[in-house]
Structures are given as C-alpha cells and as structure tokens.
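Notebook p. 47: complex prediction with nicotinamide-adenine-dinucleotide.
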Amino acid sequence: MANYEFFKFVNQNFNRASGYLSIEKGLLSQIKACNSTYHIAFPIKRDDGTVEVIHGWRSAHSSHKSPTKGGIRYAMQVNEDEVNALAALMTYKCAIVSVPFGGAKGGVKIDRSKYSNSEIERITRRYTFELIKKNFIGPGVDVPAPDYGTGEQEMVWILDTYRSMVDSLDSDGCVTGKPIHQSGISGRTSATGRGVYFGLREACSMKKEMDKLGFTTGLEGKKVIVQGLGNVGYYAAYFLREAGALITGIAELHGGVYDEKGINIVKLKEHIRETGSISGYPDGKYIDDSGKLIEMNCDILIPAALENQITEENAPRIKAKIIGEAANGPLSDQGHKIIKERPSLIIPDIYLNAGGVTVSYFEWIKNLSHIRFGRMDRRYEENAMERLLEAIEDLTGTKFSENDLKRLGKGPEEWDIVDSGLEDTMVMAYNMMYEAREQHKTDLRTAAYITAIKKIALSYQQLGIFP
Ligand code: NAD
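Predicted complex, structure tokens below:
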C-alpha cells in the first residue's frame, strides 16, 4: 500500500476512456489535472501533555463547478497522492450522477484508534481552522463530508468551528453528513450503502447480463461477501439482506465471519459495538485471515474498505462474478484486468458509491434553502389524496379500509423524498453508463469515465476557453 500510486491509476482509467472520445488534448489535460492541493502541518497537545505534529491535506481537483465536494479521511496511509486521487474520483463521480460540484478530498494522517475522543476533537477543529484560514472551506467554496475514519461527530465539530469563525446565514452548508438535529438530512448516514444496493439491484435486474454470468435476475438468494463493516459496508449489507440476498461473509480488519446460511448483520454489528471485535461472534465460522475470506465462494463481492485490495496477487483466486466497488479504488489496474478476462461484472466505484455525494447534495440544498424537504407540501398532498380517495369511494360505492386509507393517503416525509431522489439518480446513472458501455463495446469502468469526461468537457467548452 505504501508505494501504491493511486492518482496514476485514476489517470490510467481516464486516458483509456479519453481514447474513445474526440476531445482536444489541452482540454483533457485540464480535466485531469488537480487544480490545487493544500498540505497542512499543525501541533496538537496530547492528553499526556506531549505535543505532536499532525499532517493533513485538502485537494480541490476540479473547480469547473462550485463548490467542490468530497469527504475527509482519517487513516495512516493518507498522503498527497491519495488525496489527489480521491479528489479526482469525486470530480468524475459528481459528473456521472449529475451533482453540480467539482471534486475534492481531505485527509489527516492518523490512526484514530490511538487517539482519545478529545484529541480527535482538537485535531478536527484545528484542521478546520487551517482550512478556513486559507479559504479552503465554505458553502460556496468547498464542502467536506464523512469518509473512511470520520462520521457525524467530526462533521459537527467542523460545523461548529466554521460557525464560530464565519458569520454567515449559509454557514450550515459548509459541511454535509451532519446529524439530523445539526442541520443534517434524513438518509445521509445510510446513503452510500443504500446507493450501492440500488446500483447492484439495477445491475442484477438485467437478464442479458445475468445470463452471461449464469445467474438468474434479482438479488434474492445471491451470496454476498463484504469487506469492511464500516458505514458503507454495513448499510450496503443491510439493504441487500432486506432485499433477500444472503450475506455469507464479512471480512473486517483483523478477521471475519463466514456463514453459508447468511449473517444477521444487525446482530453482528451489535456484537462488534459491545466487544470491540468481530471475534467471538456466536453464529457462523470465525476466519482469522480476512484476506482469505474475500476469496471464498460467493456471487457478489463488495469491497467496502480501502483502495488497492484486489490486485494481481489475489485476483486469480477471487471467486465472485460480480464485484461491487463500494470503496474507492479497491481494484488495482492489474486486478481489474485479471477479473475482466473471465465472465464477470465489475461495477465501478465512481458510479456505485455515488449515493453519498448525491444525498450530500440534497443536504446542501436543504441548508441553503433553510427548509426541510416536504415541509411545505406534505399535508397539502395528504389532503388532495384524501379528496381523491373519497371521490373514488363515491363513484365506485366501495369503501377503503382504514389501513388502505393510511397507506395511500400518506404524504411524503423528508426521508421518502430523499430516498426516491437517490433511487432515481442511481438507476438513471446506471443506465447512462450501461448505454455508453454498449455503444463503445468496453467495460463499465471505462464507460463510466467516458460518461463523466463528456459531461465535464461540455461544461468547460461552454465557458468558451476551450474549443
Ligand atoms: P469506515 O471508516 O466507516 O469503515 C471502514 C471499515 O473497513 C472499518 O470497519 C475498518 O475496520 C474496515 N477495514 C479497513 N481495512 C480493512 C481490510 N483490509 N479488510 C477488511 N476490513 C477493513 O469507512 P467508510 O466511510 O465506510 O468508507 C469505506 C470506503 O468507502 C472508503 O474507500 C471510502 O472512501 C468509500 N466511500 C465512503 C463514503 C461515505 O459516505 N462514508 C462515500 C463514498 C465512498
């Protein structure tokens, strides 16, 4: 992992896709280039009184749209190359799902398990302060969100630090992924995993593709192994299980669980929360080598941890025919090539994990408009539906049951609106990417890049700078 050149890998994919397009070279270079990267080093007082210098980065890959958008990662392998690569992926991801943002990403090089909660708070607030100082954050500039190693709590600290330093009506839109009572939106926490589910559901609904793999259509009964039971992996597994898939394996950092009969994901998460470890889970079989677990028999493999997990070394042993890239960059270039050579379907990260940024976009809109989705029209829609149902009863002479009246007459809550927006986005984007694949006779990853590059190029061309 240490020497992995992630940005080079992203650019290889970009170059491959560019070969299918007749776009001027200068414009392609502009789209590909990382516009700005900021490296920060700041001191933090540890709980024991010692001082440590922490390194952080924020990269704005493309500002063809404002603001830029992307998560903040806390992990030991964070470096400038990784942040640039992840920011570039954000640019292409936003284009694929038609979210009007440029791509960005931030990272702090720490192993968060080695810091107390108050140390993490000090690191988060200081990192935010440094971003504010250089105008690298703001609702119209650059808007962070959670990523690996961060969540709602860090987003609240970012919000609070920003609010305390910037006096603006729109301050709440400086960060997304906030809890609901801190200007967040219903459905953001589960959005990336839910998007993974919608994407896989769409892919598995296509008979032509499933026939090629020797599968029936639908998710029901499909065996799934997930690598990483964090935010994305948990919710992806949760919704897939609800749809009838069997979660047969969960690979975590220091071991995993395998159960042919299917794992109760809620119970397993509860066990990890209570004991701090996946080992000792009473059902299924404990596997101490999680690298081996992802090579076990299954239909769908969902890498939901980090980049460069399936490489030329282990790709020949991966059995899954469908790979759903929930993490960013989980397959190396060689890993992708090896799996592609056999009957398989690789659903690329820049499409499959775009649910998070989609709902972040909804949250940002909510913050700028200062109103919850559904607030103005929910009751109006309920009343209109009630009148319609009464008219149907009068005309047909039949009476709806209390249950039917409740079900049919329900106006949309914020979650309903967010969820239908997310579903629509993921379904439409899959079909757009699939059409590009059919048109260019290529793989889904190249097709996803083709789709993104075309949209971004158009946006630059309309500025009049490029031919
Ligand atoms: P997270 O920190 O919530 O969870 C990651 C989990 O992976 C942790 O439980 C960790 O222990 C586990 N893990 C780490 N290395 C592992 C390994 N080698 N084998 C098995 N498990 C391992 O992170 P997350 O937010 O779920 O992000 C996961 C991936 O999804 C990242 O690549 C991130 O960039 C991407 N992503 C996240 C979001 C989001 O909204 N959080 C959105 C888009 C993409």
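Notes: The longest helix spans residues 414-440. The pocket of nicotinamide-adenine-dinucleotide is lined by residues 71, 146-149, 192, 227-233, 251-253, 290, 304-306, 326-328, 353, 356 (CB under 6 Å).
Next step: compare against the earlier run before touching the bench.
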